[in-house]
Amino acid sequence: MQPDFKIQQETKKFLQTMINRILIRIKVLQILYAYYQNGTNDLKVAENELLFSLQKSYDLYHYFLLLIIDITNLQERVLDNRKHKYRPTEEELNPNMRMVDNRFVKQLSENESLKKYVTEHKLSWSNDQDFIKTILDAITASEVYAEYLKNPDDSYETDREFWRSIFKKIICGNDIITDYLEDKSIYWNDDIEIIETFTLKTIKRFDKNEGSKQPLLPMFKDLEDRAFAVKLFRESILHGDEYRERINRHMKNWETERIAIIDLMIMQIAIAEIITFPSIPISVSLNEYIDTAKYYSTPKSGTFINGILDSIVDELKKEKVLFKD
Questions:
Q1: Which of 168, 233, 283, 292 is the most buried (most CB within 10 A)?
Q2: Whole-angstrom distance, CA of residue 54 vs CA of residue 47
Q3: How far are the Cα atoms of 33, 55, 293, 297 from residue 261, in angstroms, in the given order?
Q4: pLDDT tens digits, one per residue of 78-117
């Protein structure tokens, strides 16, 4: 049991420090698929498309954070308009301003990194006010909102937890929001779920003591991550024929023409990663690509890919091509 536990601990630690690589692997798969479909064979153009696609995902991360601010600002305008309408009710004259005065949102709106990125990349929800209103209506009609207004604990932590709950229960997985975002950018079609996860992690990490300097998740952890993206894609292409030949040798009991093209590409990238990056544990690579197969291919793809890749890993070790665990 001890060796298995050690591997689990090392894998967990690795995943915690390399979380952005999950998105990188997905993007490499998407661009690899497009590369073969387009048939242009221009590696440099494809690499630029990969980096641009990752940049658009990073835009979405900031759009989600900006969305929280814009929803709050709209709520303030709504409550103010009600105050000034003809014959407002007592409740409209004295509304509960807790959501408007939310401390976490105030800190987020002052965040230096967010403001800088939004300005430099010209991000804005200004042309999406109907969309913002739809989300605001869903929030104010929710139990989370009602409980928040009645919560006797008036603290920064309560304010932050309110938005974490709202994001998790109302924004994440919301088909209306997903459809709208997919229409807004084709680059977001398969990114939304994972970027929502990054946004939730960011909300949870916010600390009132950090003030306007609260760090946001970087696009890349460091230059090594950017290099990882380009090198993984490049190696998958340059050695694609070699990797596919190896895959075919291990598909004795499978009819090649019946294997999903996406499964072949997933295995092609997985082999490239396993061979090219000695610092990444084999178990991490296998788990990532098996999960990717379950999401992007058929229900049985994960089991199939696991079996093929296990055989290939054993073969690589016997050939003295692979020296890691």
A1: 233
A2: 11
A3: 9, 27, 11, 9
A4: 999 898 888 888 887 888 999 999 999 999 999 999 999 9
Sign of CA dihedral 25, 28, 34, 35: negative
Which residues of the chain have a pLDDT value below 70?
A: 1-19, 253-259
HSE, CB side, 13 Å, CA atoms: give it for residue 223. Answer: 0
What CA–CA distance (Å, rounded) separates 200 from 194?
A: 10
With DSSP H G I counted as helix, E B as strand and the rest as coil, what are the percentages for the chain, rounded to 5?
75, 0, 25
Q: Which amino acid is at 54?
A: L
Treating both helix axes as pointing N-terminal to C-terminal, what angle do 223-238 and 240-249 enclose, rounded to 10 degrees?
A: 70
Give the C-alpha separation, 28 to 236, whole Å.
9
- Answer yes or no: are the C-beta atoms of 70 and 57 closer than 8 Å: no
Q: Which residues of 92-122 are buried (b: 16+ CB within 10 A; e: fewer)?
A: eeebeebbbebbbbebbbebebbeebbeeee
3-state secondary structure of 215: coil
Nearest to 190 by CA among 82, 46, 314, 292: 292
| Buried-state track 289-307, b at ≥16 Cβ within 10 A, e below 16 | bbebbeebbeeebbebbee
Q: What is the DSSP string of 56-104?
A: HHHHHHHHHHHHHHHHHHHHHHHHHHHHTSSS--HHHHS---TTTT-HH
Tokens 């894998």, residue located: 11
Please give the model's pTM, rounded to 2 decimal places: 0.84
